[in-house]
Amino acid sequence: MNIRNEHITDLEKIETLTWAAFKNHPSHAPGAEPNEHLIVNRLRENKALALSLVAEDETGIIGHIAFSPVCIAGESSNWFGLAPVSVAPERQGQGIGGKLIEAGLSRLLAQGADGVVLLGEPAYYQRFGFESHVNLTLPGVPAEYFMIQRLKACSPIPVGEVSFHQSFYG
Asked: Cis ω on the peptide bond leading into residue 84 (within 30° of 0)?
């Protein structure tokens, strides 16, 4: 498996993969259609995809991960939101998402990012070093599902409410 930056020729494949990965996802209301592919498209259109990686093997693109800037306490920051991470349904549970997360965190650190936030399942994301922290909150979300990872040990964890890019809200 190879993990690389997305190419312009990957966009339709990323959209299809992301839609399929979130079809019937437990975080959606029963019967609701996924919108994560639309979020990725809007992030790209708004030039807010700070990092977009694909995982591919001999069968083609089998995974995707997106990172975008977040604001903290209403101000721009050097922190990024991880969302979404998508893996082809038939390939889920094989560690592909984990490899994308690790590659993304490594690349963001190399680019000088201070940290990453996400909304997700604690049992999954804690294995990658994510944890809830009282300094950072996401309004309307139970604290245990909003997690952070500081990438630079010397950087303080900022304080305030986090807001994802407007592309997440339509």
From this structure: yes
